[in-house]
Amino acid sequence: MPDCFVPAMRSAVMRAVKGSNTRLEVGFRSLVCASGLRYGLSSRLPGKPDLVFPAARVAVFVDSCFWHACPKHCRCPKGNKGYWSAKLQRNKKRDRLVSAQCQKLGWTAIRVWEHSIKTRPDACVARIKAAVLSSNRIVT
Questions:
Q1: CB atoms < 10 A from the CB of 52, how many?
Q2: Rounded to the nearest 5°, which phi and psi values hold at 111?
């Protein structure tokens, strides 16, 4: 199926896709904050986590279903299928590598799927809270 946009327009559309501070991330951060947890946004950790809890050494990654190839919801585009299939597989491989690198540095990497945030936000926040509070590095 041909693309419905001319190449210049497709390029503009793809440039408009945000990489950080998406509506999903901002909404999720407000839920985490409302739960009483305080987090940081910037870190030198691999993969640029969306939320960091330095005292507990917990890094949280908010993964969208499309860009991180969710097994339940990701549908590979029909156009240029070879490119997209390879791209999404590289993203999945990079996610595994980043999580392993964080673990090697002594951090707990938590990945939260977009669909989980939309359907069970309280469970996602509880999972993060449990990891942060179970860290023996927290002094209360």
A1: 20
A2: -110, 130
